[in-house]
Amino acid sequence: MSYAIQLLPFDISFDCEEEETILDAALRQGINLRYGCKHGGCGSCKAQIAEGEVDVGEASTFALMDYEQNQGLALLCSAYPLSDVAIELADDYEEAELRSGVPIREFEAGVEALAPLTHDIWQLRLALRKPSSMTFEAGQYVEIQVPGTDSWRAFSMSNAPSDEGRVELMIKLLPGGLFSGFLSERLAVGDALKLRGPFGRFVLAETEAPIIMVAGGAGLAPIAAMLRALAERNSQRSITFFYGARTTRDLFWLEELEALAGQLESFEFIPALSEPGAADVWDGEVGLVTEVVDRRCEKLRAAEAYLCGPPAMIDAAIEVLRAKGLFSARIRYDKFVSTED
């Protein structure tokens, strides 16, 4: 059974299956609703239910407070319709934004290459088989089905959108991780995987403003895609990329960044080590990457920022950037939140 979902105040409606979240149904049909984690934890997809009933599912009580539920608010990523539903969207939505999405599709892919980048981050490169290409924007992500299960895991793409026949990922190995454990222990070149996408709104704005990038760990992946895309466009924008790691063994992709520096008009890469060891030969920045941003940046009112990595790093970076004069509307971020298993 399906229900009709209407988006107010626009003349936009779509069908949602009974066992499908409202957000999933919208994305499947190319309707570009706003969202973040897709798992009920961040609150980015919060909206007012104007008419009808929904099951709020597994929404976090942090992202959706009890009093907000009582007021008719719901997280669309975890809301299942129980009837036809009308949703009152935020005042700053525009119809063109809603109609700009690319429908989510499922893909069959084959493992083309896999190898460790560091002691706990691996690169996985997939060749798309059916369909054989994907249209996406730099900064977006895909979900991969864990073989032998009904579970899916999300990973940001590091390849440029021009490389539409492949998907390249940087995956952090997590203790007990459902997919990362499979990757490091069982996956082999030639194996088949199922994936779906593209997802995400963490994409480059079409401006000429100076760019500040801040990343940590596997958060380098979407930044790499953005840098590759900017290089292909022969971008003249000023770009400063701060990357945080604990020790030198956590640094990677350095040769690729050096090559990109030669292709970009104005690019500076600033790595920072938070816990350099006695064995580290290092004369670069030391401290939390957000502390380095604070030390190295002055007024940023004219800039825009792209942040990707652990939530604590992003929250701290936002605070620093705002203090430097950067408007909140010009700070885009993707918080990497790991699934428990």
Description:
The protein folds into three domains: 2-98, Ubiquitin-like (UB roll), CATH 3.10.20; 105-199, Elongation Factor Tu (Ef-tu), domain 3 (Beta Barrel); 211-335, Rossmann fold. It contains eight helices and 19 strands. The chain has helices at 22-28, 66-70, 95-98, 178-185, 220-232, 254-263, 289-296, 311-323, and strands at residues 2-8, 12-17, 46-51, 54-55, 73-75, 80-81, 85-88, 105-116, 121-130, 141-145, 152-156, 166-172, 192-199, 211-216, 238-245, 266-273, 285-286, 304-309, 331-335. The chain has a six-stranded antiparallel beta sheet. α5 (220-232) links the parallel β14 (211-216) and β15 (238-245). α7 packs parallel to α8 (311-323).
Per the CATH scheme, the topology name of the largest domain is Rossmann fold
Oligomerization: single chain
Summarize the biggest pleated sheet.
6 strands, antiparallel
Average pLDDT number: 94
Q: Supply Rg.
A: 21 Å
What is the name of the CATH architecture of the largest domain? 3-Layer(aba) Sandwich
How many domains? The number is: 3
Return the CATH class of the largest domain: Alpha Beta
CATH-assigned homologous superfamily of the largest domain: Nucleotide-binding domain of ferredoxin-NADP reductase (FNR) module
Give the strand order of the largest sheet, numbering strands 1, 2, ... along the chain: 11-10-13-8-9-12
Structural class: alpha/beta
| SSE arrangement, N to C | EEHEEHEEEHEEEEEHEEHEHEEHEHE
Shape: globular
Helix count, DSSP H or I runs of 4 or more residues: 8
How many beta strands in the DSSP annotation?
A: 19
Contiguous uncertain segments of 5+ residues:
none
Gap between N and C termini: 32 Å
In percent, how helical is the residue content? 10-25%
Name the beta content range.
Answer: 25-35%
